Amino acid sequence: MTQRKRQKQKPKQKSTILNLDGQVFKNKEARKKKKPSKLKKTLVNQRKNKEFAETAYYDYTPTLDLDLCVLTFLSKLFKIQTKTKITNTKKKKKTRRYVFGIREVYKYASLGKLCVVIIPTNVDNTLEIHKIINDIRKQPNTHLIFSCSRKKLGSIFKKTLRISMIGVFDKSGADLLFARMLMLAKIERKKERLKLLQNNTSQQLKETETETETEKETEKEQVKEKKKDDEKEKNEEK
């Protein structure tokens, strides 16, 4: 009975569809279209409605040294990961060093699995990105670094896509570059804080100067009024 059933069962024909380039795909794969996530929808809507934040999301302006350090750090991680993929084909997820995209980076950063999050300086300055960056800042073990452009970060990983965020799981193999990268970012942050303090002090000095000038003017007016009153009293007595 089992042999007859096997003979009767015909092999299932795989329903295929041709792509414009002539490549063959399964119908199921062709039908499946990725739906945009809630985060992507909000980002697109904010971009369309021009709901941009007043202040910039990055707290310092990156230098060429920092950009070069970031690029070398990421390129080294990329080389290490490509080697491990060839050797350990079964353990791909365990050997993964980094993650792309806002949604994925935000997910792993909120779980506290990332040591660094690298964000380029030319991402759309929307309110949602401000919220995401502030949430990542609250994580104690994750460092934030603002450097390079989206196109430059994509070119390191040999991708034509523009990368908006990169999250790093494991920094082993590039520890010295990681330490130098953090040091350079710290120096730039200190410089920005000093600039802000200088600007605030200069504004305060200007405000105090204007206040003193107004006080002097009011005093002069009061003196003039007193003189007028005295003259009037003298005339009345006469």
From TrEMBL:
This is Ribosomal protein eL8/eL30/eS12/Gadd45 domain-containing protein. It comes from Anaeramoeba flamelloides. Residues 89-175 form the Ribosomal protein eL8/eL30/eS12/Gadd45 domain. The lineage of its organism: Eukaryota, Metamonada, Anaeramoebidae, Anaeramoeba. Residues 206-238 have a biased composition (Basic and acidic residues). Gene3D superfamilies: 3.30.1330.30. PANTHER family: C2H2-TYPE DOMAIN-CONTAINING PROTEIN, GH01354P. It comes from the Eukaryota. It holds the Pfam family Ribosomal_L7Ae. Residues 198-238 are annotated as: Disordered.
